[in-house]
Every structure is written in structure tokens, then in C-alpha cells.
Design brief:
alpha+beta; seven-stranded antiparallel beta sheet; two-stranded antiparallel ribbon; 13 strands; flat; disordered N terminus
Length: 397
């Protein structure tokens, strides 16, 4: 624009110079030239100003469009998060099993008809933020050896709420049971977070009854996941088919995640008595998380209480636990080996044909789990190498 404007000025100067006939005429031409130059200058300035305003308007419109797109993306993101957190979805065309029903089917004193609509509100100052955290117990799922298990809802101030899973000290507890619950809760309070362990939302030690509040896992147990998403391969192609190899790789990935969780738990001085596929929960992304872990010093108490039941889970108990009522770090390795057998047998129950007393006798006499058709040879050999003698079992998985 500057070059164009300069060319016009010199063009008019040449015209004036060529037609000079005297001072008056020159002066007149000069005034005319100034007038022309002013008109041209104003036109050029108006043109520049208009284009500048046009660019500014376009820039503002583009910025507003980008802002609208970002807001829509945020709304879509939070909508997806809410739906994934509070709905029971389908994976691979198979409906999820109701989480509460799975807990009720767990071993122990099963509550066949869950006690519902019992509510308990507890308010307390949560940390430095001084926000009111309260829970409402909804359904008692079962009564275990140490804790009662409930589904519940939680509210943190007025900004956050959701579903949760609560392990609570029974109301009619002895002094010894209260002390045990307090010990477990205190140890869990010092537990570091891990992607392989179910997240703890809050631990209440302010008021009795004590409780531990966990995130609500809506995607079921590892056993549910395997039963719903893995198919048994026909015997004729079980050893060398591409489907069988691919399935084995996926199962190894799941087994590795559980092993990582157990290594972490052990490093935090915790144990997982009677680890089984029912004690491993799965996330939306098919990752495994452990729950129901206990401090090392309370693991034996948990085992002894469980052994007094009418239907104890002997299949996941190590020989030293059954024979001598001992619980060692290596006892978790035995339970993990049984979990591997479950996993690579695609959800079958160990010693399913035997009664609990028969299982105990079978293990006492040195018996081991038989190889199933689905379990690969390499994995069955790996499971057997754990052995029956505790010293043969390393802490590393």
C-alpha cells in the first residue's frame, strides 16, 4: 500500500511541474495537489483501517469458535466419565454381572437375603480442607470374619458424591474385634496408592464403628471377566492354534498384573490371605486390582477365623496353613499358584469335586491340582514348580 501511495504522489508532482506557468499557477496547482494528496491519503487510511478491523473481527470469530469446540469437548469428556463410573456396561457383547451379587457369592458367611435400606450417616472433618464426608449404607452384602461388607453412597461436601464399597466393623463387636479392626484400618491408612490395588476413598477412625471406604468397582471380578470373555478351544486345536496362543498371551498379561499387585502388597508389609480370582477386581480397561488385603501381622488371625467356618476355602490355603496354622510370606505364593490354575483353566474351581475336609486331606497327603485341558503345558509346569515345601517358594513371582 505504501508503494502505491508514493507512486501517486510522484505522478501528480510531475504533472504540476510540467504545467508551471507562474507563481500564481504554481501556487494554485500546489493547493490542488495538496487537496488531491489529502483525499488519496484519507482513502488509503480508510481502506487500511477497514482491512484491519476485518482481520480483528475474523480473529475474534475464530477464537470464539475454538472456545466453543473446547467447551463441547469438555462436556463430552465429563459425560463419558460419569457414564463409565455409574453404569454397568457391556464388554464383547456380554452383560456385566451385578457387583453386589458377586460379593454375596463369595466364600464365608453369605447373606442370602441382603439387608437393605439400612442407612448410617457419619460426618467428620476430612483433613485440612475441613469438608464434610458422610456415607449412607445401603445394602449389607455379607458378614466376614472381621468386617461387614456393604454397598453405600458417599458425599464429600456439596461438590462430590458417588457409589462406594464399605468394610465396616460390626456393631456388636468385642473389645478384641474392635482392636483388630482398628489395627487393620490404621495400617491401610499408611498404604501407598497403586494401580494394582483398589483405591481407598476414606478410612474412618474418628468414630465407632470404624470403616474403610473403597471405590465402587462396577466391572466385576477377574473370574467373571474370564468366564464372560474367554472361550474354551476345542481339544483338537488346543495346543497349536492361533486362537489358543493369542488367548494364552492375554491370560499371561492378566497374571502379570496380579503378580505386580502382590509384589507391591508384599513390599508394603501386607498379605492377601486366600488370594483367588474372586478377590481380584477388573477395571473398564481390563486391568486387575486387588482388594481385601490385610497387614502381615493380622493375616494369620484372618486365616484362623476363616478356618472355623463350616465351609472354609481350603483350596487356596497352603499346606503349612492347613497342617500347622502358620501363615508365611510364601503362603501368598501358594495362593497365587492356585489363582494361576484358575486363570489358565478359564475359571474352573479348584478341587470342585471334593468336600472341604477332603481337600484338606488331599493337600496334607501331598496332592496337587490336576492339569486341565485348557491349561498350557508350560504354565502347568510353572505352577507345580512352586512346590509344597514353603522354602521352595520364593517371594518373587
Amino acid at each position: 500500500m505504501t508503494a502505491s501511495f508514493t507512486f501517486v504522489v510522484f505522478e501528480h508532482l510531475n504533472e504540476v511541474t510540467c504545467s508551471c506557468e507562474g507563481p500564481y499557477i504554481v501556487d494554485t496547482h500546489a493547493k490542488v495537489l495538496v487537496h488531491i494528496l489529502e483525499e488519496r491519503a484519507f482513502k488509503e487510511c480508510d481502506k487500511i483501517s477497514f482491512l484491519d478491523h476485518l482481520r480483528e473481527a475474523a480473529s475474534i470469530i475464530v477464537s470464539l469458535l475454538i472456545l466453543v469446540v473446547l467447551l463441547l469437548c469438555l462436556v463430552f469428556y465429563f459425560k463419558c466419565k460419569i457414564q463409565s463410573g455409574y453404569s454397568i456396561s457391556k464388554r464383547n457383547g456380554t452383560a456385566r454381572v451385578n457387583y453386589e451379587a458377586r460379593i454375596m457369592e463369595d466364600s464365608g458367611n453369605i447373606v442370602h437375603e441382603a439387608e437393605t435400606t439400612q442407612h448410617l450417616d457419619i460426618d467428620f472433618a476430612a483433613g485440612d480442607c475441613q469438608k464434610s464426608f458422610n456415607i449412607s449404607l445401603v445394602t449389607r452384602l455379607r458378614k466376614g470374619c472381621i468386617f461387614e461388607y456393604w454397598s453405600a453412597t458417599y458425599h464429600l461436601g456439596s461438590s462430590k458424591e458417588g457409589l462406594c464399597f464399605v468394610k465396616r466393623m460390626p456393631e456388636l463387636s468385642t473389645e478384641k474385634e474392635r482392636h483388630l479392626c482398628e489395627t487393620v484400618a490404621l495400617k491401610l491408612k499408611s498404604l501407598e496408592s497403586s494401580i494394582y490395588v483398589v483405591n481407598i476413598i476414606h478410612i474412618n477412625l474418628e468414630k465407632i464403628p470404624y470403616y474403610v471406604c473403597y471405590e465402587y468397582m462396577t466391572y466385576g471380578t477377574l473370574k467373571d471377566f474370564v468366564l464372560n470373555n474367554f472361550r474354551k478351544v476345542p481339544e483338537a486345536v488346543v495346543s497349536n492354534s492361533k486362537a489358543s496362543i493369542k488367548q494364552s498371551k492375554e491370560l499371561v498379561t492378566l497374571a502379570s498384573q496380579v503378580a505386580e499387585g502382590m509384589v507391591f502388597v508384599t513390599s508394603q508389609m501386607f498379605n492377601h490371605p486366600m488370594l483367588s480370582m474372586k478377590k481380584v477386581l477388573t477395571t473398564e480397561d481390563c486391568n486387575c486390582k486387588l482388594y481385601d488385603i490385610y497387614p502381615a501381622e493380622t493375616a494369620l488371625v484372618k486365616i484362623k477365623s476363616h478356618m472355623k467356618k463350616d465351609d472354609p476355602s481350603f483350596a487356596w490355603m497352603s499346606p503349612e496353613t492347613i497342617l500347622y496354622q502358620q501363615y508365611l510370606p510364601q503362603s501368598d505364593v501358594w495362593s497365587y499358584s492356585v489363582l494361576l490354575w484358575e486363570l489358565f483353566s478359564l475359571g474352573e474351581t479348584p478341587f470342585a469335586a471334593l468336600e472341604p475336609s477332603q481337600i484338606a486331606q488331599h493337600i496334607r497327603s501331598g496332592g496337587v491340582l490336576s492339569k486341565t485341558r485348557e491349561c498350557p503345558d508350560f504354565m502347568y509346569a510353572f505352577i507345580i514348580k512352586f512346590g509344597l515345601i514353603p522354602l521352595r517358594r520364593g517371594r518373587k513371582r
